[in-house]
Amino acid sequence: MNKLSLSLLMVLSMTGIVHAATPPATADANLWLEDIDGAKQLDWVRQHNAETVKKYADTAEFKQLDARLLEVLDSNARIPFVAKIGDHYYNFWRDKEHPRGLWRRTSPAEYAKEQPAWETVLDLDALSKAEQENWVWHGADCLKPANRRCLLMLSRGGADADVVREFDLASRQFVKDGFALPEAKTQVTWKDQDTLYVATDFGPGSMTASSYPRIVKEWKRGTPLSAAATVYEGKHEDMSISAERDHTPGFERDFVHRQLAFYDSETFLRGKDGKLARIDVPNDASTDVQREWLLITPRSDWALGGKTYKSGSLLAAHFDDYMAGKYKDGKRPLTVLFEPTDSTALDAHSWTRHHLILNVMDNVVNRLEVLTPQAGAWKRESLGGAPELSTIGAAGIDADDSDDYFLTVSGFLQPTTLYTGALGQGEPRAIKHSPAFFDASKYRVSQHFVASRDGTRVPYFEIASKDLKADGKNPTLQYGYGGFEISLQPAYSGSVGRAWLDQGGVYVIANIRGGGEYGPRWHKAALKAERLRAYEDFAAVSQDLFKRGITSPAHLGAMGGSNGGLLMGNMLTLYPQLYGAIVSQVALLDMQRYTHLSAGASWMAEYGDPDKPEEWAWIKTFSPYTNARAGQKYPPVLFTTSTRDDRVGPVHARKMYAKLAGLGYDAAFYENIEGGHGAAADNKQSAFMNALGYTYLWEHLK
Questions:
Q1: For residue 37, what pLDDT is reported?
Q2: Which pLDDT value is given to residue 678?
Q3: Torsion-angle region of residue 482: left (phi > 0), alpha (psi -120 to 50) or beta?
């Protein structure tokens, strides 16, 4: 499974609220808030929402900011990014007139025009109205090579759990008596026109402890789901099970994936007789099969055939030969396509028909390389680098068909430009430009490095006014994530520009350990018992801002979401003296019970298992809900979440706010009843949630 697939496991559907095996929690006065949809609990939510709105959102200034952020999100000048399905480019689009969104298409030639003509395929607002549902788009899987039939994933209110329905692209209608699956955390793909691979909730015992499907089946058209034949059955303690067919013409293959834990997996080639042959790589290595090639990315140093391949490398082999064992004796070494250095990491790779594009980060700034398969070392050429302190990325448009690719360039002060080209056929040409939502000429971007507590060199980006005074009084917002090998790279944000920079603030991105800025080693440096390293890094960046005269604790705010929300909880409880205010979004916070809430069990590879005393001994050092106590000088803190977040869940934020408020601290809370893990089901909700966070910080940092 490739790196992208691993990250997408964070967004697969999950419907569990509280795991049935939840142990009793002693002396937890807020345990009652774990009943997510209980009437009493939702009354509590509405009460505290109203208090927060009255205090922070019921002003002319808030409403003006909310409108300005919504203008960014609804702008018709945004780039309509597309995916190629058959002969058309497809785009999902939300704006003021279509808050739920349009799934639409156009031709490649039309797309290259400044104002393409679009054909609506599905109007989600009309569908929601007709069916009296609050549908949120979660994507489509279309069957190659005809690309006529698709499986549409629709979510109620933004939850990860989906309803799946078969759709006909030619008629633009749902297929009468077609494939359909009820709301569940489903993973479903086409095997052929009359057969699906389905991993879903088949009833009691069919889900893993992580609330993912444990069983994948082969479901024939016209038969009940109960008659589907089992393809593979995992264990209860596994993370998830799925299957898929590679429909590449001439290289059709079926695979079964067993995700043992977040970073450990097994992939099997499924023969026509149903027998499985494991792709023999380390469990923590990811794999990608394209035509005759197998690509392998080990997360740990890997000794094979007398050679050791470095963690974070990208390796290539002929797939059929590898499956036949021809690489194991050392006589036929794997081809090394990328090997990391102290400053570089592989961010992503993408195939075109004849080439492989590598996106390499060097101190968190990108460059692109094009590799062409050949005997021995592959041919290597540059596809260009990003402008200074910016981000460049490229991906093939249709690897079955052509060497065409899309390329994007973006920076903190540089609106995104979309290029298109064909490898080997000259320079790419710009076809789309994002609008500028603020005057970037007033600001400058710089990159800095600071030594963390243990001496590790940690990078961070700073966006500030060109005439910034180093007087320690500048309102500054420091953002971070630091987990799951996810990198924070330069990117344009009209919302940050309007809500923070244009108001006189300094914006800082901290590239702390736990992320992927320097590959697996950077991530592993903050795993499990080493988690505190991420928080030490974030604190070191804050202290460097003070040392450089950029800001001071009274004027420094911090913000982060999800794992970044856990980061915020720990900055609150471990480093309260550094911040004037904190915003924690859709966060994990109760690390003693996180494995029993929503999809928490799937992240034990990141944090550890609190039910094991030896692991709880160090997990409790970064459990904000556990560590919050009376008599501390905590800065004001806002917790935002969503009732429909069935990934992390709203329980963490509810309980943390209740505990702090009960201890008399200055805390605020807002829970969007819709939204899912993104905390918003449409642009209007997203603008409101962002405006609330920024308004809260400005209220306390001026």
A1: 94
A2: 83
A3: left
Are residues 499 and 548 in contact, defined by beta-carbon separation less than 8 angstroms?
Answer: no
Nearest to 239 by CA among 213, 219, 217, 218: 213
| Strand-strand pairing, 229-233 and 240-246 | unpaired
State residue 13's pLDDT score. 28
**pLDDT tens digits for range 8-42:** 333 332 222 233 333 444 579 999 999 999 999 99
- How does pLDDT run across 331-361, given as a tens digit for each residue? 899 999 999 999 999 999 999 999 999 999 9
Q: According to the model, what pLDDT value does residue 387 have?
A: 81
pLDDT of residue 15: 26
- What does each C-alpha distance from 633 to 279, 573, 576, 636 come to in angstroms? 54, 9, 7, 10
* DSSP class of 564: H
Which DSSP state fits 597? B
Q: Annotated catalytic, 677? A: yes
How far, in Å, CA of 377 to CA of 254, rounded? 29
Catalytic residue among 493, 677, 686, 700: 677
Among candidate residues 167, 172, 226, the one with its CA nearest the CA of residue 200: 226
Helix or strand run (H / E) with residue 307: strand 307-309
Phi, psi of 380 (to 5 degrees): -130, 125
How far apart CA 497 and CA 63 sit, in angstroms, is 17
Q: Is position 562 annotated as part of the catalytic site? A: yes
- DSSP label at 599? T
The H-or-E segment that residue 203 falls in is: none
Positions in the chain short of pLDDT 50:
1-25
Contact 647, 591 (CB under 8 A): no
Residue 10 is predicted with a pLDDT of 33
Query: Phi first, then psi: what are they for 692, rounded to 5°?
Result: -65, -45
Helices of type H across 250-362: 319-323
CB 423 within 8 A of CB 406: no
pLDDT of residue 121: 98
Residue that is written with structure tokens 């393409």 in the block: 116
Which is the catalytic residue, given 155, 286, 410, 562?
Answer: 562
Distance CA 124, CA 588 (A): 32
Percentage, residues of the chain above pLDDT 70: 96
Sequence letter at residue 577:
Q
The answer, yes or no, to whether the previous bond of 520 is cis (omega within 30 of 0) is no
Following CA atoms 477, 543, 573, 525 in sequence, which dihedral angle do they give, to the nearest 10 degrees? 100
Tell me the C-alpha distance between 649 and 587, whole Å: 8
So what's the pLDDT on residue 26?
Answer: 53
